[in-house]
Amino acid sequence: MLWQPLTASILASVVTAAGIFTISRFREWSKGRSVYMMSFAAGILISVSFLHLIPKSFSMNSSSPGFLLAGFLGLYLVNRMMKMYFCEEYECEPYVTGMIPIIGIGLHSFIDGLIYVVTFKVDVLTGVLAAIGMVLHEFPEGIVSYSMLKSGGLSRGRSAVYAFIAAGLTTPLGVLLGYPFITKIGVPQLGLALAVSAGALVYAGASHLLPSIEKENRKFTVLTLAVGVLVAVAMVFFKNR
Prior knowledge:
The protein is mostly helical. Helix content is 90%, strand content 0%. It has helices spanning 3-25, 27-60, 64-89, 92-122, 124-136, 138-151, 156-182, 187-216, 221-239. The longest helix has 34 residues, at 27-60.
């Protein structure tokens, strides 16, 4: 049903808007605390992917391992190629600091919308498990989007608007555009799509969120990461009961 992934994507947009508003009004407070939400989200995303999404996709299609790798490497290559293109074609500062968030985060958020459709298509619990970590990481993503656009020379108002378009509105757009196609595929194909989604989520958690957390070097980030892992383990455990 469309309302399930669409509701999750709208909630993600609201959380993104909250992150943008907070950083624009309370800069120091939000920058100091968003890393804890980021580490909690990383714990959930990585754990849910390994404990539920990946095994589920493997049980649906024996070719899923290759598509899992494709999802991981695909998201990495998209991010890498955009950075290489802009740094070769233009001065990297401040142009890239303004354009990479618009294009990179916009594409990433659009893919999030597709992941919502895929996971909720598998079953409601799978969608909810994936959505929890994805929604939580939208708050720091909104903060990062706004901060990078602001550092690229945009005004506060334009930074907020462009950050919301890139990180917020593209997620429901991904749901609306992907839903008619994804809902028509069969179980084996859905298993492959879930594997790609899991690979993308592992990349987002392990290769995007965790390095950002380590740069902050905050005292309790390991604790909030562990809490995220424990929450994910508990949800998967009770799901299998």
